[in-house]
Amino acid sequence: MSLSCRLDEAAKHDVLTTIVVFGASGDLAKKKTYPALFHLFQQGLLPKRTRIIGYARTQMSREQFTGRVTSFFKKDDPQSDIDSFLAICEYVSGKYDVAEDFKQLRSEIDANEKAMKKQEGDERVHIYYLALPPSVFVSVGTQIKENVYDGSCTNRVVIEKPFGHDLESSRELSVKIGALFAEDEIYRIDHYLGKEMVKNILALRFANVFYETVWNRYYISNVQITFKEPFGTEGRGGYFDEFGIIRDVMQNHLLQVLSIVAMNQPKSLRSEDIRDCKTQVLQRILPIQLEDTLLGQYGRSRDGSKPGYKDDDTVPGESTTPTFAQCVLHVDNNRWRGVPWVLKAGKALDEAKMTIRIQFKDMPNALFPSLARNELVIQVSPKESVYIKTIVKEPGLSTNLAMSELDLSYHRRYQDLKIPDAYATLILDVLNGDHSNFVRSDELDEAWRIFTPLLHQIDKEQVVPLAYEYGSRGPKGVDEFAAERAGYMRTAREYHWQPKSATATATATANSGKL
Fold this sequence. Notes:
Helices cover 35% and strands 21% of the residues. It has helices at 3-12, 27-42, 62-69, 79-86, 99-115, 137-147, 167-180, 196-206, 209-213, 237-240, 244-262, 271-283, 410-413, 422-432, 441-461, 478-486, and strands at residues 16-22, 50-56, 89-93, 124-130, 154-160, 186-189, 220-228, 293-301, 324-330, 340-346, 353-360, 375-381, 385-393, 401-409, 438-439, 466-470. The strands form 2 sheets. A 9-stranded mixed sheet has the order 14-13-12-11-7-10-9-8-16, with helices on both faces. A hairpin with a 7-residue loop joins strand 13 and strand 14. Belongs to the glucose-6-phosphate dehydrogenase family. Pfam families: G6PD_C, G6PD_N.
């Protein structure tokens, strides 16, 4: 099925669609879920007969509800579009463990379907979006199944991370949710799988012969997947302290990205074929060792203007929870055996960035010695781009060699294109019944298998993370760790792929040689 067909599928079909947003009064709903639904509405990608019902414990008037769900809409959104969207939205207040409240919700759904002129034979879809903490997943899921679930239509349940705290708790949650809903009804959402450049990896790899040819241990030295945030926990330290950076980012987001970069070519673009290949990669990853891990926790900025992690009143004063982690993984299969994969994530660092950096091996000859390595870099955020660091001769009479780039920066190449938010992309997939970009239960199980021994050792031994300054690149020794454990060779000076004038000297950005 072509991409254009997939994008239009939900809008073209006159499917009677009800979307229930549980936790409608919470931050996730107002910041992500409702803006994503509004974006799809603006683009005409919601089915024509759609109703959205918000459900939460908070008592709110219609005015309070509409003000809350539109608070993160863009300032330049036309008021007429907002009014039309709100016309298909309503709010129901109820508890998460009271059967009568869920029976009332079912009555609202039935009444809305009647108002949408439900007829015998109509294709109907009920989507239950759990924008809720995992502590109430099972309670809400049980009430949905017993008092709301309609076996005469298609039912889809969207669950947000975190999916458990370790392997045991994840399996327990999976068993309980699996007893309520079939696997093909469950959509475990990881919003990184909805990001444009992550979704682009499949096309980049399998639609271009020259990439797939060198996508293996014979040509690639190491792979780094990096997630950096320039801010700290900002008052959410108490919540973050329960999880730490490994559970918050690495075990889910970064490992999912790794599985897409590392997987073999699937039989087709069908969701199960793709998820089969991702799972096969995860099954071949060895559990991470503590000696292959570097942990850090941020303190105050050098000038003292930014507080340290433990300056947050909600964080225990003796906390050893890491806010930075760098791990080296190994995929034990024929394609990747011997290639280190470095996952790096941290808060309160020097910039906001998420990148996939594939560093190739040195040229197998000495014709051009002492040159920087070729790299393929996929920048997922903030500015989507793909570029290849490559060696060229400087233009003109010079015989110097310099590092240059083959560059596809989306903000330059597609200047009039608005890339949709990841949540909008994934909700569209839910509407279309496409599981490709959602986490299957066996994927989740393997992900926890990889990280749980490390997490338990860190917790048991109370491993003290290295201190680093707010706004720095991380703990001391970050680059040395990647070099020693993964063989990563960093360019002598930081490389920036900005346009240069004809007279600019490119040799300052990389090691250079003479032709």
